[in-house]
Specification:
alpha/beta, 2-enoyl-CoA Hydratase, Chain A, domain 1, Lyase 2-enoyl-coa Hydratase, Chain  A, domain 2, 2 domains, six-stranded mixed β-sheet, 12 helices, 9 strands, binds acetoacetyl-coenzyme A
Length: about 250
């Protein structure tokens, strides 16, 4: 597939996805979602790619494309919805980082919420303004936001449709950090994570995802199996031997 609505590149071991509809402040339309879906498929299939950064040159994304949605009926809205693609992105076995510049609103913030980590620029403006359009967040906002920042704070944002700045987002725990250049900071973080053992990263991500699905007892059992299974990997031997031999490990993903 030829990408037009997104820009896709691979830098060392990091896949970089940039949304590419600057005139519409990167509003997410069907084309963007189709291309994002394909990019996720390519990333999962490529063992050379260890980490993913999603960002933009200016605005992260000002939400789903309102103009495309105006005349939709419920069936069309459901078919337009981003949940299948966002779920695939969330379930990627590789860590994902959202580099948030400018607006991350509605579906744009929901895209950032799907990522494992979020770095905001000082100019970042985040919110779920769907209530002002007579709808609710429909790409995971009512589910992922409360799990991340708590129901009370999520309601504060969703009921009023307010837009918050980067310091407030940091205070809420909505973003991990604020960086002058979020894309650059995300690439640096990606490089650090890309040097870790891929199978351990995959297991860590899957175990942490279990916290949203199970009670702690089942989660601990899942962790025990995942943890002990890693002792069958070459990277576990390499990691522990390198410690004993006082050298840096080289992980191969096996
Ligand atoms: N959909 C379609 N077009 C959009 C858009 C969106 N979400 N956001 C911005 N644009 C377009 C504008 O229509 C405008 O296009 P034209 O030049 O052709 O008129 C262009 O981008 C620039 O936008 P503005 O002139 O409005 O820029 P501004 O600086 O004055 O305001 C803004 C910026 C506050 C982000 C404002 O554009 C805005 O409020 N956008 C909509 C935000 C929003 O409500 N997002 C939620 C969408 S619903 C959703 O996401 C549903 C879901 O859960 C999946």
């Amino acid at each position: 597939m030829k990408f037009e609505s997104i820009l896709f590149s691979v830098v060392e071991k990091t896949a970089v996805i940039k949304l590419n509809r600057p005139k519409a402040l990167n509003a997410l339309n069907s084309e963007v979602i189709k291309e994002l879906d394909e990019a996720v498929r390519m990333i999962e299939a490529d063992p050379q790619i260890r980490v993913v950064v999603i960002g933009s040159d200016k605005h992260f994304a000002a939400g789903a494309d309102i103009k495309e949605m105006i005349e939709m009926n419920p069936e069309q809205a459901r078919a337009f919805g981003f949940t299948p693609t966002f779920n695939k992105l969330e379930n990627l076995t590789k860590p994902t980082i959202a580099a948030i510049s400018g607006y991350a609103l509605g579906g744009g913030l929901e895209l950032a919420l799907v990522c494992d980590l979020r770095i905001a620029g000082p100019d970042a403006k985040l919110g779920l303004p769907e209530i002002n359009l007579g709808i609710i967040p429909g790409a995971g906002g009512t589910q992922r936001l409360p799990r991340l920042i708590g129901a009370s704070r999520a309601k504060e944002l969703v009921f009023q449709g307010v837009i918050i700045d980067a310091p407030k987002a940091l205070q809420f725990g909505l973003v991990n950090e604020i960086a002058e250049n979020p894309l650059e900071a995300s690439m640096k973080l990606a490089e650090k994570i890309a040097g870790k053992a891929p199978l351990a990263l995959k297991a860590a991500k899957q175990c942490i995802a279990m916290t949203a699905k199970t009670d702690i007892r089942a989660g601990l059992e899942y962790e025990e199996v995942a943890w002990s299974s890693l002792y069958a990997t070459k990277d576990q031997k390499e990691g522990m031997r390198s410690f004993a031999e006082k050298r840096k490990p080289t992980f191969i993903g096996e």
